[in-house]
Structure formats: C-alpha cells, structure tokens
Design a protein that fits this description.
Pathway: Porphyrin-containing compound metabolism; protoporphyrin-IX biosynthesis; protoporphyrinogen-IX from coproporphyrinogen-III (O2 route): step 1/1. The chain is of the alpha+beta class. The protein is built from ten helices and 14 strands.
Length: 384
C-alpha cells in the first residue's frame, strides 16, 4: 500500500509505491502488491471503508485493540510506534516548509473510517516558495477477499482461506517549489501487515516495510545532488553498508518512465517489501530515513528559492513536471491502486503539480543545462 495501498499516494500516503495486485515473492516471505495479474478486476481485490470527515485530530487512528494502552503485543507496539513516527515526520516537515514560506500555512483535512483508521492531509498551495506542498499520513484497516489472497500465494490450493484482514500505515509527501532551480522532493515511508486469524488455513501473519526519498530537479547543481545523496547514504550506513547502493539502484529502477526511456529525476533511495531483517531494526531505519528528509532537502531550497530565472527556465521546469505527471498516473503503484479501489481522491492526486507542460517533440540542444539533466535521467549516475 506513493509506495502500501498510498505515495507514493493512494489512501493518502502510500506514494510512491503501492501495489496493484498481490502475489508471493520468491525472495521474501511476505505478501506484496505488484504488477497486475489476469484475474478478477482490481476494484474487487481490497475492501476499504469510506472515510468520514473529522473536525479535529485524534490522539491515534488505531483501533482500541491495537492501541498500546490497551494491548502490549509486539504487533500492536509496532503499529503504534510507526503511527507515532509518521505523525511526527508530518509535523516536522510541515514546520520546516512553513518556516521557509514565512507566512503561508498548510490547509489540513482530517478523516476517519468507522471500522478504525483514518488520516491527515496537509496541503500548502501557491505559497511564496512552494507551488504545491502535500504531506499526508494515513492508517488503513481493510480486508483482502479470498481470491486476492490466493493470488498473493501465487499457487493453487485446496484450502480456502477466508477474507484476510490487513493493516497499513504511512506518510507520503511531494513538494513542488516555484523556482525552477529548486528541486521537487518526494518521500514515502510505510508499514504493512496481513493479520489473518490463526484458524484460517494457509494465511499466516506477514509484515513488511517500504519507502524512500527521491529528488527531482529541473537543473543540476552537483553540490546539491551530492548533498542530497550523502544524507541518504549516511542514514543507510547507520544500519547496513549494503543499503545505500542497493536502494539507490532500486530507486533508479522504480522511477523509470518506460515510454520515455528515462527516469523521473536524479534518484535517492527506494525499498519495498523489506522483512528479512529484524523488525525493530527496520522500524528504526524507517524512522532515521524520515528524520533525514528535512536536512537533506531544506538547505537546498533555501539556497535556490530566490535565484533569478527566465521564462525558458520555467518552461523547462514545466516540461519536467509533465514527466512527473506521466509517471504518477501511468506507473506509480500507489496512485493507480488508489484510483482503482476508491481511495480518497484528493489525497491520491496531491502529488501532482499545480501546473505542467507538454510540447510536441521537444528536444533540448546537446550540451545545454537542460540536455545535461535529461542525459542524467536517461543514464543514472553515481553521485557520491
């Protein structure tokens, strides 16, 4: 479920990276959504209740059985601590953006679902610095019907499991600045569980983490790109030296616009379906990555937000925003999943820029700054 069932942006935050259909991963003992399988239509696969607007933020979106004041189980503890983390990340990023804006504030919408769960969407539109900045959190309880679970297992079985409950929580954000020299940023961190009753045959409890932070400038300033990637590497290296090179390549591969044969931007880190490490370690790793967003991004925006630019610079930024729209509407698993399963539409589409541009057969002249950006999107580089 941005990457979960939100984004990178369905069900509010699973931004960048959510999944269309369930199948069994040969590498990881987990369920995850992936490319569509020819079975029943997707809109039948997952059941999610309609959201109800709320006038104020609740202390928690968890069901009473998951709130650690009522339960001390390890599963509930991870759910509660992950919700605490994503709400703190939302607060810190929004505070940092409002400090840069120096006046304009986020508009907040809060909603819940009758059976548990809910979310908070915050959007700042047409500010002093940001054209559009969205930061969403959501907590989702749903049910996968038996046919979705059988698709998840990837093999026929005589056993007929009942509906498989799931839990998903995540934070997702896309930040689109006005100045073409200031880069767009996307991040998404999420946690997912299936939670079938023990007497349901063939449906064990599974969990995994996913997420990432990626960087989409219209113009390359090497110091900025190196700074951004260095912060990602520092967060990764605190946990495993293999994480940065592995997740950097995963990011380049995920944000690939197949019909253009180019990447959406200059990468960062991306991971999904992670459950082959200690759960506490992955919770701490996700927290470290979310806490790295502000130091990785805000100093770059501060440096670039007031640079002078021409109409040509703005037009190129708008063309690159067009690529952003193409990726999110055609390939992003969170966005496409949300659109097909009745997620909250304003949260799903909050990732899209306020404005974008398409020109017929536009090709930047070789050697120009625009060409250098396009070349780096076609041929991903190692920046550090």
């Amino acid at each position: 479920m941005a990457s979960l069932l939100s984004s990178p942006h369905s069900l509010a935050p699973f931004t960048s990276h959510h999944h269309h259909r369930l199948h069994h991963s040969p590498n990881l003992s987990t369920l995850h959504f992936s490319r569509p399988i020819k079975t029943k239509p997707l809109r039948c696969s997952v059941s999610i209740e309609k959201e109800v607007p709320e006038t104020e933020r609740p202390f928690t979106f968890l069901r009473d059985s998951d709130d650690t004041t009522h339960s001390s189980s390890s599963s509930s503890s991870v759910r509660a601590r992950f919700e605490t983390m994503i709400r703190a990340a939302q607060d810190s990023v929004c505070e940092a953006i409002e400090a840069v804006e120096n006046g304009p504030k986020f508009k907040e919408d809060v909603w819940s679902r009758p059976g548990g769960g809910g979310g908070i969407s915050r959007v700042l539109q047409d500010g002093n610095v940001f054209e559009k900045a969205g930061v969403n959190v959501s907590v989702v309880y749903g049910v996968m019907p038996p046919e979705a679970y059988r698709a998840a297992k990837g093999s026929a079985s005589d056993q007929k499991p009942g509906p498989v409950p799931f839990f998903a929580a995540g934070v997702s954000s896309v930040l689109h600045p006005k100045n073409p020299f200031a880069p767009t940023l996307h991040f998404n961190y999420r946690y997912f569980e299936t939670d079938a009753p023990k007497d349901v045959p063939g449906a064990p409890r599974s969990w995994w983490f996913g997420g990432g932070t990626d960087f989409t400038p219209a113009y390359i300033f090497e110091d900025d790109v190196k700074h951004f990637h260095t912060i990602q590497k520092q967060a990764c290296d605190k946990f495993d030296p293999s994480f940065y090179p592995r997740f950097k390549k995963w990011c380049d591969d995920y944000f690939y616009i197949k019909h253009r044969d180019e990447r959406r931007g200059l990468g960062g880190i991306f991971f999904d379906d992670l459950n082959d490490y200690d759960q506490e370690m992955l919770l701490a790793f996700s927290t470290e990555c979310a806490n790295s967003v502000v130091p990785a991004y805000i100093p770059i925006v501060e440096k670039r937000k007031d640079m002078e630019f021409t109409e040509q610079h703005k037009a190129w930024q708008q063309l690159r925003r067009g690529r952003y729209v193409e990726f999110n509407l055609v390939y992003d698993r969170g966005t496409t999943f949300g659109l097909k399963t009745g997620g909250r539409i304003e949260s799903i589409l909050v990732s899209l820029p306020l404005s974008a541009r398409w020109e017929y057969d536009h090709k930047p002249e070789e050697g120009t700054e625009e060409w250098k950006l396009l070349d780096a999107c076609i041929n991903p580089k190692e920046w550090i």
